[in-house]
């Protein structure tokens, strides 16, 4: 890695936002950045070497920050307790139960030993994909809260189980590491919620110290260090800390700082690195990879869509099947651990793209549903729980 390559990397990463500007067919920025990585990586021009140690380490930092942002997207509040928590958890468990035979079946069909990994991927959801896809449409009503709970639980549980599914032989150590990471994140969330940090924020803002982001990065990288030492992914460190930050509430200033740090450099760098590390030529050399990718994507949408039989509107049920962070994490971790065949990585990536396409198709129906919920609330003069950011109660 050199400054010239870093400048080129930042330049090509701009293509992601440019592809997203198309109003008729907007390409999610993440997908655009992955495509760029594929073009400049080992599949295409081979400008960037994904095995470069500096590039890989910077990508790991980006991965932790991206998963922090995903965790911070998970809304937490008193409206998530009670029946909404019970129903959302029940649906997530139902999807998980369906995912196990589906994942094992796909592995048997395509001659892979990663059936449990496929099951975790199928059961996963993506708060960082689905919630931003809603745009300005508020997620309102009891079913909306249950929808959010189902996504949050599926996302969190899959991220915890992912390292265990990838290397079952190290499951005990990874489980202990996951518990430690989660406990530290919980302690951070409780501390930030209980203790008044207003004076610290005031001094930081007045003197330009940026104390909030410095403290956050100390905790994030400490969690990442624990995770790596205990054979747990940095994705869990970032996601757990993001949920803790969502619980405690983030000042607006801190949100802007983390957004700039993630989306300005490290996030795009991670996705370009990931695209550069995947060899899509394996799809042509191994036609079964295409079948596996399509199978994973369609099976993911089907098992999540089945939660519609548990009184969740089918467009919402299918939308919970959107997958992003977990498939990406699976590819990243499994390739690093050497537990995945080279043809499986592009297949998993293809499966994630299929689920993203499924979310894109159903999202107009989802937004239409919640707009109807809004109109019903206004007509009835009843205010039901709606999507709201917990950190709105914290002054910037």
From TrEMBL:
Q: Where is the Cation/H+ exchanger transmembrane domain?
A: 11-358
Q: How does it sit in the membrane?
A: Multi-pass membrane protein
- Hydrolase as a keyword? no
Tell me the Gene Ontology biological-process terms attached to this UniProt entry.
proton transmembrane transport
Q: Which domain of life is it from?
A: Bacteria
Asked if the keyword Signal belongs to this entry, the reply reads no
Sorted alphabetically, the keyword list is:
Antiport, Ion transport, Membrane, Transmembrane, Transmembrane helix, Transport
Q: Where, by residue number, does the polypeptide cross the bilayer? A: 55-76, 88-110, 116-135, 147-166, 172-192, 213-246, 258-278, 290-310, 347-366
Cellular component, GO annotation: membrane
What molecular functions are annotated in GO for this chain? antiporter activity
Q: Where in the cell?
A: Membrane
Main subcellular localisation:
membrane
Output the PANTHER family linked to this UniProt entry: NA(+)_H(+) ANTIPORTER YJBQ-RELATED, NAPA-TYPE SODIUM/HYDROGEN ANTIPORTER
Q: Which family does it belong to?
A: Belongs to the monovalent cation:proton antiporter 2 (CPA2) transporter (TC 2.A.37) family.
The name this protein goes by in its record: Sodium/hydrogen exchanger family protein
